[in-house]
Specification:
Structural class: alpha/beta
Strand order of the largest sheet: 2-3-4-6-5
CATH class of the largest domain: Mainly Beta
Number of strands: 6
Order of helices and strands: EHEEEEEH
Shape: elongated
Distance between the termini: 55 Å
């Protein structure tokens, strides 16, 4: 039996925090600055450029070798704890120090516009395919 992992939906850290429990069980990919690290409890905290904060469970990526204030990219599943806190449990973590976050966010916006345009075109194509063929017979 093969287990298929979901690809991580690319979200800015503030979007992950805003969507919160709606992302429970979903795979996400996000970037943030490492502002806290607690190896004893296998937790860390990432901060976004707007000040939003996201708790990270590092249990699947131990040892967590990153330094405070490093820019970290995570791909993993969101969980809601018993206390209602949203936590990301990454299966992949990597340091992306040197990444131009402003340019990354700009590219993300362009990519989303492209996907939206493609989705609209696909919907129009599907609607045209659903038209009865006899309407063209006159």
């Amino acid at each position: 039996m093969s287990m298929r992992l979901q690809s991580g939906r690319v979200l800015k850290l503030d979007e992950v925090v805003q969507q919160g429990s709606a992302l429970d069980g979903k795979a996400v990919r996000t970037i943030g600055k490492l502002v806290q690290l607690n190896p004893v409890s296998s937790t860390a905290v990432l901060s976004g450029s707007d000040g939003s904060r996201l708790t990270v469970s590092t249990r699947l990526v131990e040892p967590f070798p990153y330094r405070l204030h490093s820019l970290i990219q995570l791909i993993g599943e969101m969980e809601v704890t018993g206390g209602g806190e949203c936590v990301i449990v990454p299966r992949v973590a990597r340091c992306v120090d040197g990444l131009d976050v402003r340019l990354h966010n700009e590219a993300l916006g362009v990519w989303r516009q492209f996907l939206e345009k493609q989705q609209m075109q696909q919907q129009q194509q599907d609607e045209n395919d659903e038209l009865p063929s006899d309407i063209f017979d006159m």
